[in-house]
Write a structure and sequence with these properties.
The chain is of the alpha/beta class. The protein has 7 helices and 11 strands. The strands form 4 sheets. A 5-stranded mixed sheet has the order 8-7-9-10-11. It starts with a helix and ends in an 11-residue tail after the last strand.
Length: about 280
Amino acid sequence: MLSGVQIEQEVLDMPVRKVITIDEEKCDGCGQCVPSCAEGAIQVIDGKARLVSETYCDGLGACLGDCPQGAILLEERQADDFDPAAVEAHLARLKQIPETPVHPLRGNHGHSGCPGSLSQTIIRDREAEHSPRPAPPAGLRAHLSNWPVQLHLVPLQAPYFAGADLLIAADCAPFAFADFHSQFLAGKKLIIGCPKLDDTSAYLDKLVQIFSLNDIRSVEVAFMEVPCCFGLVSLVQQAVSAAGKRIPVSLSKLGIRGDLLDKHEARSASPLVTCL
């Protein structure tokens, strides 16, 4: 075991070089910096971008321009030497981790690099005070508080998932139910998807990861009365079960004529439903 004097001497002997530093206050966990680091030195952990190891960072700063929040900077300080061999081993380990497949129509299931799919938290009252846009008619209020919302695009971890009451809705539900925002969306974070048109296996994999990686407080599933739409209920129930979490799930069935047909607490996971 090294003595205190030896440890102190090792620190003093460390080279001074450029290494990235990440401001956690500015970072919103969008993950846009991750693919820009060819060495895999950055990962999103607990909703924030982190430098995994100084030895993986070459100090060239290729990731700097890919942070929309300006949270990544280069600083010159004492740090372990950049180790290409360690990087190669690290990248080999990352390749062994199963990746969510790329959907032919939707693109990547995580952040795709498109500015429109950048993870955002929407604070309504604060933005309304400074918005030049006209206010909505009296009695109407938008309650969407997160972006993106499509299941293929939402990040696996985002700050707004922490302790969230989650609404998972079929794509058609907001169009069928006139008062969707106030009746369903208020106070919840939204994810939407279509179990008939999209890849349900990819949906299941991603939901399992979202439930596993985040402290989701509750889930409500808003689905249409058509038979295939019940597949969304099955996916959510299976994902909660596979994640090993005890998350209360409620089900709201909407009619195509815009009415709420049924609302109750889910009891147990059911088999995956598919429809061609």
